[in-house]
Write a structure and sequence with these properties.
2 strands, 27% strand, alpha+beta
Length: 62
């Protein structure tokens, strides 16, 4: 019975990680482990801005 609970816990955090990865374009997912068990899943998403060339930057590139 305890093996079924452990398998269920494993499937739960793996699904959480999968959902977080699928939901973002750029970023990271961090898995926190305490005493051999996943206790927390954190995600940080980055928003990439388009590379816009301003007149000042265009003059520098020339």
């Amino acid at each position: 019975m305890s093996q079924n609970i452990a398998e269920s816990d494993t499937e739960a955090w793996i699904e959480i990680v999968r959902q977080k990865v699928e939901a973002m374009r750029f970023g990271s997912v961090q898995i926190i482990v305490h005493e051999g068990r996943v206790t927390q899943v954190e995600s940080t998403e980055k928003t990439r801005l388009p590379d816009v060339v301003s007149p000042a930057n265009a003059a520098k590139k020339k």
